[in-house]
């Protein structure tokens, strides 16, 4: 419409035109390709230095070269580094699937962490504080939000149309699709950041362990990008089956740890330190409980009675309860049963957290006490931090949990692919970090996965396990924030080849 025509219209009509135009120009969409750079200072591991934070978006392209999605990331680099080529790059993912890369970013490895108490509970006013244990002193870090998490989104085409649900699932929302497009995206990121020569490490939490296990192989075999280390934080099964008697028995060490924490064990067990108790329970699990469960309904009565008694003793449960469940106690039953007489439930992802239900009867808790606590503190903190400290401002909603379902879980060979990536690359090492009080991805399952990752045993000197007295997000407990970062720092430094050391057997 020409300006002269607008001038001749009534004022109310002009207002409608201006309002409509402003609405069209300001729809709630994320920028496809953007970055905001800010400067900061830190004191980490006793050392003061400055660092740069780059927060932005980078496109995901289809086979035709068209941008079909954009991923939001935050990239931290230490300033005044003489040799960036020898400085490690840590690439960080969370899990879900459908979870933003906020948990480890704002509570574990990043230079700023949540304002929470020493056990991980929220306090007000919400916000962030310096993280004196971050690994930014020895490695640059990039946190990546997969499609539909954080500010990452599927994009409309030039006709204003989104990919169909089927197309989105095929391209983004499945074990294989997720790994494929993220490997391509990382290739572009490494190109832009000029980090091809740097040692590279992948770290993933929960479902993110499935993601980084697959990425190690995909990056090496499709992008020719070789990795020095993979860190699995509270790992999933990564495609390594733990069914039948294994699945049932592997829960017992977690039950024992949780009962010990809540002082629900008998005096003789309660008097032991957790580091002394758990090996005892693990030995019973492997040497006695798994064989007993394998016998099913044909186990001898005397043996069954003996196993029931020991299970109840280690789990802090009644013998009757163990017997009623045929030695196979579902975790949701345990979360409800352990402290039933106290009128409390225990958390799923971190059993240190307590909940209260409408009724003390029932088979599972009304809600997950730990998750509500975490969302209480993470949601305001990440929104404040990105906007006010990193100066990345948008009206797009930050998705702590995004819509990525149904997720295609077929063809999950990520554990085997990680083993193959290790075999192909003598530089590649793997570390698992688990919390003893995690009931979703329990620590003994993680140990079992580590044992089964390389059945030949030829690479076991390149596999390691670290346990912590907390849950799924072990770093929320202050003591474990320090120890887990120190373990990660040691792993990175020990995984760097010595000067002149060739990648060969």
Query: Would you identify the regions where 5 or more consecutive residues have pLDDT less than 50?
Result: 1-25
Shape: globular
Using the coordinates above, name the CATH class of the largest domain.
Answer: Alpha Beta
Main sheet, how many strands, which sense, barrel? Answer: 10 strands, mixed
Element-level helix/strand string: HHEEEEEEEEHHEHEHHHHHHHEEHHEHEH
Number of helices: 16
- Please compute the radius of gyration using only Cα atoms: 25 Å
Mean pLDDT: 93
- Percent range for β-strand residues: 15-25%
Q: Give the CATH architecture of the largest domain.
A: 3-Layer(aba) Sandwich
Number of distinct beta strands: 14
Task: Give the arrangement of secondary structure elements.
Elements: H1 3-7, H2 11-25, E1 34-44, E2 47-61, E3 67-78, E4 89-93, E5 112-114, E6 128-130, E7 140-144, E8 153-154, H3 165-171, H4 175-193, E9 200-205, H5 207-222, E10 229-233, H6 244-249, H7 252-261, H8 267-270, H9 274-294, H10 301-315, H11 319-324, H12 331-337, E11 345-346, E12 354-355, H13 369-389, H14 414-424, E13 429-435, H15 443-453, E14 463-468, H16 478-495
Parallel strand pairs: 4-7, 4-9, 9-10, 10-13, 13-14
Antiparallel strand pairs: 1-2, 2-3, 3-7, 3-8, 5-6, 11-12
Helix pairs in contact: 4-5, 5-14, 7-9, 9-10
How would you characterize this protein structure?
Strand 2 and strand 3 form a beta hairpin. Strands 1, 2, 3, 4, 7, 8, 9, 10, 13 and 14 form a 10-stranded mixed β-sheet that branches. Strands 5-6 form a two-stranded antiparallel sheet. It has a two-stranded antiparallel sheet with strand order 11-12. It is of the alpha/beta class and 505 residues long. The protein contains 16 helices and 14 strands. It is globular, with a radius of gyration of 25 Å. The chain has 2 domains: 320 residues, Alpha/Beta hydrolase fold, catalytic domain (Rossmann fold); 124 residues, no CATH class. InterPro entries: AB_hydrolase_fold, Peptidase_S10. One of its GO terms (biological process) is proteolysis.
